[in-house]
Amino acid sequence: MEDNKIIDLFFKRSEQAISELSAKYGKLCEKIARNILNNASDAEECVNDTYLGVWNSIPPNHPDSLSAYVCRIARNLSLKRYQYNTASKRNSIYDTALEELEECIASAKDVEGEVESAELTKTIEQFLDTLSERDRVIFMRRYYFSDAYADIALQTGLSEKNVSVRLTRLRSKLRNYLKERDYIV
After folding, report:
1. 6 burial level (CB within 10 Å; 0-12, 13-18, 19+)
2. How crowded is residue 67: how many other Cβ atoms within 10 Å of its Cβ?
3. pTM as predicted
4. Per residue in 28-80, pLDDT tens?
5. Which of 31, 56, 122, 125 is 20 to 30 Å apart from 173, CA to CA?
6. Is 3-85 CATH 2.40.170.20?
């Protein structure tokens, strides 16, 4: 079913909307949640919470891209669960992906930091626009969807080593891109 029709079902408050959303984006949401949480039951719960989140936010929201909207909700819920689960623990899968970017990006914890974070987000989006489609996919699959190198390699037709090397080069490009724009790295 097309996204516009699914959104219309949400506006009509039809329970079929959840079924259609699950059929179309359930596996994607589950993959995002599993990559972040590395726990099947927590991932399943986050996916169900995603459906509830979409149900509660459409209406009044009318997203231009349902897939991006659903992925953002799934990712945010998974990150909240991850933070809750790992308040005093370490989860090597997601932490590893974030640690790779730590040397490029500083942490923001105050209001000024939030403003800087929004500016940094815009700058990173501009950086992504400078990349080839393949490199952009590799970067996003690793640092947004938290995919493992092996999964990215399968998806792009590259070897794991090539994915690793490309990500190293992309982080270096990002670091230089940020330095050129006077970000402290």
Report:
1. buried
2. 13
3. 0.63
4. 999 999 988 888 899 999 999 999 999 999 988 899 999 989 999 999 999 88
5. 31
6. no
CB 144 within 8 A of CB 68: no
H-helix or E-strand spanning residue 183:
none
Place of tokens 């952009």: 136
Q: Which fold has domain 94-180?
A: Arc Repressor Mutant, subunit A (1.10.10)
Taking the CB of residue 1, how many other CB atoms lie within 10 A of it? 14
Domain ranges in the chain are 3-85, 94-180
Pull the structure tokens for residue 24.
């179309």
Give the C-alpha separation, 70 to 78, whole Å: 12
Give alpha helix (H) positions in the chain: 3-11, 16-37, 40-57, 66-85, 92-102, 111-130, 133-143, 149-156, 160-180
- Write out the two tokens for 21: 């959303």
**pLDDT tens digits for range 101-155:** 666 665 555 556 667 777 888 888 899 999 999 999 999 989 888 888 999 999 9
DSSP 8-state class, residue 65: -
CB 36 within 8 A of CB 146: yes
Q: What letters, b where the CB count within 10 A reaches 16 and e where it falls short, cover 118-157? A: eebeeebeebeeebeeebeebbebbbebbbbbebbbeebe
